[in-house]
Amino acid sequence: EFESVANSKVEKSYFHDAFDYGGGGRGYGVVMHFTTNECLIENNVFKHLRHSILLQAGANGNVAAFNHSTDPYWTNANPLLGGNSAGELVLHGNYVYANLFEQNDVQNIVIDNSHGGNGPYNTFLRNRASLYGIFFSDNTSPSQNFIGNEIPNSNFPYSSVNYTILGNDQFSYGNNNKGTVAPAGTSNLQDTSYYYALKPAFVQGYQWGRIGLPHAMNSAKVPATNRFEGNDIFAGACGKEDYYAGLSEREEYSVFPNPVSETLWIRGAGQGEIYRIYDLQGRNWMEGVVTTDLQPISVGYLPQGMYLWYCGGKVERFVKN
Questions:
Q1: Of 143, 154, 158, 215, which sits most exposed with the smallest number of CB within 10 A?
Q2: pLDDT tens, 2-14?
Q3: Could you tell me the residue ranges of all domains in the chain?
Q4: pTM given for the model
């Protein structure tokens, strides 16, 4: 909890599970309030919390970047939405203003008026919100900025509410709303970061600015997501080797996501190995050379169906949708 705090940082931490998920400030990860400013919440993992990063009561000038949050939960949810509708990146009211959220990989971004309207110029740049997306509880928080965010979930009921931007003077540019550019005509997005002058050392080149247009939906993950999914959350912290430095030594070998729409990722294949992709009739659709421990393969042009990935004696099946 940051109460009237300035110039502080939370990084490489893991916030997960709570004793209570009801009201009254329970089940939170990081809270910044009472004019907390110029703090950085960076490269953390949040799991199964009511709210992961919450700002209220005049918090201003803070940055939350490259965080991963998953499995949100609360017990006093609207019965029409369900327990997983809790906000993970949350503006909670009482004039929260001029904060930056960029390159986070979460489920739900919520701007609400639990304590009154929020102030202006809070900016959301290149975040992925994969469940309930971006949601305003009402129209009392004008003049927010939404640039280059990804809203991938096209399943009902999420799709009916997961791009709900309310209020006056909202600025939107280059958002990918379930495959549609929002607003129309803003696909030429060139801004990568509003906080970092250069790529931070903990971020791989293929992750830097890869959430959002012009890149395909779900084509990259942030380091915190990789560590969580790789069951190595504290890699790079507490004296442990960096997650990516150890990839070549890992036995784990995976092909994901599966099913895939645009970009197939291969983890753990040997650099320099030849890879090939076949359909079930044995036709060779693609081949190339593995150049990195986490290899992206563009498969968007493949027809729908099942395919075989072959590399270094390993065969994996995947579905192209």
A1: 154
A2: 999 999 999 999 9
A3: 2-182, 248-320
A4: 0.77
